[in-house]
Amino acid sequence: MKLLYMLKKQYSRFCLREMVVVAQIVLIVLLFTPILSKLDRLLSIDQLAKNIQGPALFFQADDYYFMPEFLDAQEYSVFFDEIRKCDAVQEVGQTSVAGCAINGEGASVYFYNDALLKHLRLQTANYKSEEDAIPVLINQSLTQKYRIGDHIILDNGTIFFPVSSEYQTVQFQVAGVLKNNDYYYSLVGGASRITLESIGYRDDGLCMIALGSFNIVPVLDIDPSSLLFIETECSDTVNQINASIGHLGHAESIEVMRKNSLNNILSTNPLPFVTAVLMTMLCLASVCSYAYVSVIRLRENFAMYYICGLSRKKALAIAIIALLLLLIISLLISLVFLPLSVDVTQYNGLPYSISMIVSLFVFAFAIIFTQYSSIDPIKLMRKGD
Amino acid sequence: MLIELNQIDMKYNKGQENEVHALKQASLSVEQGDFVGLVGASGSGKTTFLQIIGGMIRPTGGDYFFDGMNVRAMKDSQLARFRNQKIGYVLQDYGLLRDRNVLENVCLPMMFSHMKWHDVENRAMELLTELHIDHLKARRVNQLSGGQSQLVAVARALAMNPPVILADEPTGSLDSNTSAHLMESLIKLNNAGTTILMVTHNEEISRQCKRIVRIRDGRLLAE
Predict the structure, then answer these.
(1) Is residue B48 included in any domain, yes or no?
(2) pLDDT digits (tens, 9 = 90+) for A193-223
(3) Looking at CB atoms within 10 Å, which of A28, A40, A273, A328 has the fewest?
């Protein structure tokens, strides 16, 4: 009861200042959360790339065209269950046969990225919705020589992926991303091999695989990019790959992709970001000035508390608890209104929001601590000598 | 002996260029029930002396015992409890908190004790009634006269029923009539057994004390 009373006395008479501070924090959380959400997705892509080790294989199987030719339904199911057990397998699903034209020449595409359908305008069986779209391995060797069930060998959780007639085992690693490359989905291109070899084919085996696209920041409409895989043994750098791709596209490292994506966010639609940053600065200034003004306003109280028998530590604790309460209230209100700002079912940036509020608190705490520490209660009340 | 100060030294900004030697080898003994007037010119060190007795600052040298307890050796938390339970402090400018009413100001020291909320309010009302200012309990302090404010400050000082009241120029901001009234209240308290140490530079006021201790340039002079 007494603690509550003391806390209440830390706040201004009608709590107007406090309400302004709470409103600002709530506003900043609601504005900043979508940005944080996007950054989180960006980082998760980065994380995905880092986590892929060993044979990284993303693919879809075709139960309508290819698989039934080799396996009955049950075998097919067992086969994919086995594949799913492999650590390296990210996704298993359907695929389709498609055809496309590259430089006017026809090419067959057996494994494609559903997510790219709308970009490719492929002639394909229309039995899948875009919601089902998942990344898929596009491999020229597969389309030319092999089919799933023929030469993909599963052994003790590892996929051996033969890329040549000698059944050479290939390991892949993430090298970067392919950007704005209209051709990377056509690595299979039979007739267009001359233009595609530099990307997808080397004499000593497959050196590069373009994976399906993903939207880094869908809301802000960043260009789709593809993870770029190269064979572990491949000594090509991203620069060398770029040189070989020529005008067909552009590859860049994950680090550059991350940096550029941030730039893209800013250049595509900077207003929310800039507003959020400005609001953050304003909020920081507001919280800090609130903390400072509180100390100034209450320093005589602080001096009297000291004289009447409250230790410095306890007086400081009361001030900190009062501030902490404000920030907790802000966080709770923010959480209530968060669905207005982002799709909470998709949002996993809560730690960011909390850490932002905690950062504000740390700044305010530092101000309160330093200001209260500098108060000399005796000097403040000393009128004599 | 209730209060015993031996060879108290106090230096502000010790070791720095602007070091001030406020108290020099000051010794004083105070019995329970004493009414001591500390008299001296401005800057003589009397307020510093009072603050050391009140446990608000630690002397840089010497010994201070209160009812047998070594005050100088107390930790911060012990010193805070000492100020809360053993000392009542009356300031020249009253030291009332402007964001609270009279009753809340009187309650303040009890807020830092283990007293229950209900007892706190009862005790505060009892003090206000004793000092005949219970009708002011809901007033904000900026609506009080100087005399009323000082009586509220006295009530607050008495809240924890401390054995010692320290008064730092309590009549300094009051007119002569109000001063006389306040002195009557202090003498009444003293007669009831409360030990009082009062800083003043008013000779007339000091003459109402049982003992007068003079202080000059940080040194206590013979009584």
Answers:
(1) yes
(2) 222 222 222 223 333 333 322 222 222 222 3
(3) A328
